[in-house]
Amino acid sequence: ELNNMASQNKYCNNFGKNGHYEYGTNLINKPKIIPFDKAERIKNMSFNCLYMTDDYIIIGSDSRETLSSSFYNDSMQKTFINKEQKLVWSMTGICKYKNIDYIKLVNEVMNSQAELRDKCILIQHLLKYPTKDKSFSTSNIKIRFNLFVGVFENKKPKFYSVEVINGKCSDANGIYDKINYPFASGVHFEQCNYLNLKIMDNKIKDDCVLEFTKLISDVIEYDKDKTKTVGGDVYVAYMDRDGNITTYINGKEAEF
Fold this sequence. Notes:
Largest sheet: 7 strands, antiparallel
Radius of gyration: 17 Å
Number of strands: 17
Structural class: alpha+beta
Order of helices and strands: HEEEEEEEEEHHHHEEEEEHHEEE
Number of helices: 7
Distance between the termini: 39 Å
Strand content: 25-35%
Shape: globular
């Protein structure tokens, strides 16, 4: 069985403690714990990842939008920042539904002045609609949306996880105070096992960015003869504990 990230991570504070949150099934997994042969195989999704220490948060994704089994848009940005609010976030899963751009909609919420926790609660409810298409429910296809948000609150790293599967909120949704392994969503999340944690924990910024970029690039390469839903450019955002954010595309510093 899949491990329950929320229940096994003692650093997790679920959104649902005050009744505003619905529990559902689990998607996000700890790659270090789940055996490859028992990990749930996820199709038709891209890839994003987050890693954090006491000194920095790094987050990134690919940029492929899968339009059909053979058509792709490789310019779909999924990692974003707000320097004023000192936030970094990344998405994967359903992007558009019935001519509504849900990445744009989520970004509108994320860039609002609301409390971050309230933003996450609203987003998980917004995404119930596009992930609960009855045409998929009869074909055993799981429609997913994932959002990772990184922030420093009182100089302490926080990771906000939001995911919705077939119209239901995941029991992995919550606020995480401390993690010492990478979190990933989408396809091939088990590839996080190959992230060099020695490099990441040395906290040399340039080395961390290159290693993290390499992970996502390797997933893109690995996926070429598999689901073919991961591709395009690699977007990475690095934020230090003072909230200073630097962004990179394919390992080179670039604004986005």
